[in-house]
Amino acid sequence: MDLHDLIQLAPEDFLGQGVLNKFKDAQLPFLFKVLSFDKALPLQSHPNRKLAEQLMKQEKKESWLGKNETFVDPNHKPEVAVVLSEMFQGFVGFRPIEEIKDFVRDVPELRMAISEETAERFLKLSNEEAEEALKETFGKVFDDEEKKASGLLRTFMERVNREGNAAFGEKRSQEKYLAEVARKLHNQYPGDIGLFGAIFFANLVVLKRGEGIAIQADVIHAYVDGDVIEVISPHPRVRDRS
User: Fold this and answer.
1) Which CATH architecture is the domain 91-206 placed in?
2) Which is nearest to 91 in space by CA: 160, 42, 140?
């Protein structure tokens, strides 16, 4: 039986009166998961409520074509993950613009991936202007992926294996786990230029057992390694802070 249908039969038994009083309907207000992963999940973001509603309407219009219905409800999905393992590694949100500029300036393979012209233009922008240009610059990594992956990724990983964190430039070389995570991603997804998108543009988050992180709608994220308890709230009455 579908969980939603089961709850409808006896909402107070399954949800409790307190939940019913707060959310005003017989709908499960959260999804609870225990996740254990030893292979990195892809970079993703959950749409905010307005975009989720739009995408669901679009899915319904196109479903007659036989496409999978990716968006099955119109709600945003803010989530909280609490670490169960000794250590968790993941990417959450974009890095501060100063850190991204450090990589663009100091990592020759990244400069070539986004083009020297784009790199020079990006570095000359103020931090406020660079924030506006971030989407375009990030997207440049994924232009002609196969061509870039065949050369730039191989060259970069050869330097990482020789130099360790020093391959990331002087300013960022003191950041822990960069070389370790780069090797891990490359071993799991050989030839995937998405490694550049994750490690140079997204915050690398390392947490210990009992620590946690909250991820709002529209925030890019990817779990890399560890075990977590994850709670996602798809309920429309949960506040969308995006």
Assistant:
1) Orthogonal Bundle (1.10)
2) 42
